[in-house]
Predict the structure of Antitoxin.
Amino acid sequence: MPTSEARKRACKKYEQEKIDRIPLRVPRGKKAQIQERATSLNESINAYINRLINEDLAKPDT
């Protein structure tokens, strides 16, 4: 079933209000490594990167 136009608009509005985007560039071949690791942990690339960032931010400053 195709996504309705109303649903598309709602998703776009939510993303504009609640989500910040950070483009990420990695050396050629690194994306495949990241994807493999994320998949092995049953995570998307986005979830994997966000988890790593959150774990790092939770550490006390040294």
In short: The radius of gyration is 16 Å. Residues 27-62 form one domain. DSSP finds three helices and no strands in the chain. Residues 5-18 form the longest helix (14 residues).
